[in-house]
Structures are given as C-alpha cells and as structure tokens.
Amino acid sequence: MTTEGIEAVFMETHNWGKAVKFFQALGYELEFATDHNSGQLRNGGSPSLFIAEIPEDREIQTQLVLRVPDADAIRLDPDVKVVAPFEDTHFGTRLMTVEDPDGRQWTLQAPGKESADGGEGHPHHA
Questions:
Q1: What's the number of CA atoms in the CB half-sphere (13 Å) around residue 76?
Q2: On the CB side of 91, how many CA atoms lie within 13 Å of its CA?
Q3: Is 27 left (phi over 0), alpha (psi -120 to 50) or beta?
Q4: Which of 7, 74, 99, 111 is most buried by a 10 A CB count?
Q5: How far apart are the first and last CA of the chain?
Q6: Diameter of the chain by CA atoms?
C-alpha cells in the first residue's frame, strides 16, 4: 500500500485573520478554528487547507500532506528517504516525514490507531 494523493495543504502565516479572509474571498469555508490562531478551511471536495500563525521572525512555509489509509500497511520503495517514521499526534493522526530527491520534505498522514473510522485530523508542525 502507498499514498492516496494530496489530503491537505499545510500553510504558515504571519497573520491568521488576514489569511482566513483571503481564502474565504476565494470560496473557502472555515471548517474549524483553534484557540491558537490556526484552523482548517475547505473548498468543496478539494484537499483541506490548514493554516497556522507563526511569529513574524520565522520564515513561512507551505507543505503538501499526502494521505495514507493505514500507517501500518504502507510499503515505501527503498529509494524513499524517511526523515521521521510514523508518530502519533495530539490531534488523533499519525504523521511520517519523507524527503524527495531535491530535498523537499513531505508529510504522510494516516488515521490514528484509535481512529478506526478513518476520522480526519489536521497537520501540525511545531
């Protein structure tokens, strides 16, 4: 088993409020917001857009999150460089980080062990 395509786009911003208004103006709807200036938006059946505010002194990043239906069943080609194996998150998913040949890091997200129903989580980077 491998990945099933793009599940989400993880974006950092220096201004949560302005970022949300921008994407709402483009047709996205806010699915949820946290109490620490982050949240998830969606536009129809497209991948979710998770935005998190970071301090002004940090460079913003954007990362694609690939869906994995079952972390225990994934079989990656030996040529795929694993930066961090699957780990449980505080928001109910399991995340793995891999690196492509150009040095970009990609997040693979699977349901958490207790999420047998395949419930959705959201990516989060410290």
A1: 19
A2: 12
A3: left
A4: 7
A5: 28
A6: 43
Which sign, positive or negative, has the C-alpha torsion 40, 116, 6, 86? positive
Region for residue 118 given its phi and psi (left: phi exceeds 0; alpha: psi -120 to 50; beta: otherwise): left
Contacts of 61 (CB under 8 A, 6+ apart): 11, 12
Rounding to the nearest 10 degrees, give the CA dihedral for residues 16, 20, 21, 22.
100
Q: What is the pLDDT of residue 113?
A: 81
Collapsing DSSP to helix, strand or coil, 23 comes out as: helix
